[in-house]
Amino acid sequence: MDAFYASVELLRYPQLKGLPVVIGGGRRGVDSVLAAGPELPLEAFPRLAGYTGRGVITTATYAARQFGVGSAMGLMKAARLCPQAILLPVDFDEYRKFSRWFKSIITDIAPLMEDRGVDEVYIDFTDVPGGQREGGRVLARLIQKSIFEATGLTCSVGVAPNKLLAKMASEFNKPNGISVLHEHELRDRIWPLSCRKVNGIGPKAEQKLVAHGIHTLGDLAQRPRDWLLAHFGKAYGAWLHEAAWGRDARPVVTESEPVSMSRETTFERDLHARHDRAELSQVFTQLCERVAADLQRKGYVGRTIGVKLRYDDFRIVTRDQTLGEATADAALIRRTAGLCLKRVDLTRRFRLLGVRVGGLQRLGEDGLPQPPAAPSAAAPTAPAMDQLF
DNA sequence: TCTGGGGTCCTAGGACCC
DNA sequence: TCTGGGGTCCTAGGACCC
């Protein structure tokens, strides 16, 4: 989906169309916008100018991107680049509603859909009637049109022989574009790209590649496989080689079970375990209650309880502990997470606290944990990335 | 410019078991 | 006397993604 959060907000506030708008932050000051309702005059919207706080941008409209602001940028910096931009708080419930909506439109047309978060999916066109016409372009157009007519939202589609290439192709023609990428176009359309464009090559891997003089996927493709194995490890090296050659055998996965659920929060200022004891204790309890509520609402229990801290210097530590039996009880989660907390250095101030429950098991009709589903022989599960090659 | 929240997967060492 | 070869589970950290 194109600038998903921002686009959903523009449906609600059409008077903002064409203006630089950023979504982010939360809480502080901007809540009044929502309370005021959709009739708000332009002057009444909060601006980025003078923003103080720790938020980041989650989404920026294309008009705002002209000013160099974009996802993950701190709001304080964004305020300097584009002070006149309108700042709206994140309304995740609303985005989830539209997410469910556009996904249901897709599965009505093409049932094999893999969920990749609120604003992204993979779709298997292979056996959809008409899925092969014009290399998939006709079906892509139908999906785009159906979503737009129902919701008013635009999306960009990449059509390719596999997920790796489709994801890259989807970036070629944004917003509201379609790109059909054929295998024989690898040299001309993929190899000139930066390695960073590959889903799975992040900042660290990119840095290391550049240090070896590898900038583009063409550079990467020319390195001998064995050289990559030697420098990047058996699994990752082999995967890098396959990626550079546009090869990816992962199927589109339509069903999956959650592995963990967590809640975390960044404080408005760094806190100290001793000096801010009361405040921290309250936040900690709330986090445990929220995770427990999430688990209960979705029908899961978990055995591994963990905490996460981010110190003032941004270092992250985690501690966890596995219980004999899975739980979704706030008090037990809080007690166990409390023990975990005792094992970390609490002399230093920290900015974030999180609580996580892993080792999830779904609750059955009887209210008892289901035995973990055995991989069925009829439909073998996808091989893990490192087992592919 | 001091950098959110919610996830997944991988690695690696140690405990423990047969 | 200086010592195996699996396997699984637990824990901590880190890369990466939306």
TrEMBL record:
Location within or outside the cell: Cytoplasm
Domain UmuC as annotated: residue spans: 1-202
Annotated positions binding Mg(2+): D119
Active site as annotated: E120
Keywords in alphabetical order: Cytoplasm, DNA damage, DNA repair, DNA replication, DNA-binding, DNA-directed DNA polymerase, Magnesium, Metal-binding, Mutator protein, Nucleotidyltransferase, Transferase
Primary enzyme class: transferase
GO molecular function terms listed in the Swiss-Prot or TrEMBL record: DNA-directed DNA polymerase activity
Cofactor: Mg(2+)
Catalytic activities: DNA(n) + a 2'-deoxyribonucleoside 5'-triphosphate = DNA(n+1) + diphosphate
Pfam families xrefs: IMS (PF00817), IMS_C (PF11799), IMS_HHH (PF11798)
Biased composition annotated in UniProt, kind: Low complexity: 375-389
Its EC number(s): 2.7.7.7
Cofactor note: Binds 2 magnesium ions per subunit.
Domain of life: Bacteria
InterPro entries: DNA/RNA_pol_sf, DNA_pol_Y-fam_lit_finger_sf, DNA_pol_Y-fam_little_finger, DNA_polymerase-Y, DNApol_IV, PolY_HhH_motif, Rev_trsase/Diguanyl_cyclase, UmuC
Presence of keyword Hydrolase: no
Primary role: Poorly processive, error-prone DNA polymerase involved in untargeted mutagenesis. Copies undamaged DNA at stalled replication forks, which arise in vivo from mismatched or misaligned primer ends. These misaligned primers can be extended by PolIV. Exhibits no 3'-5' exonuclease (proofreading) activity. May be involved in translesional synthesis, in conjunction with the beta clamp from PolIII.
Subunit: Monomer.
NCBIfam families per UniProt: PRK02406.1 (NF002677)
Protein name (record): DNA polymerase IV
Gene this protein is translated from: dinB
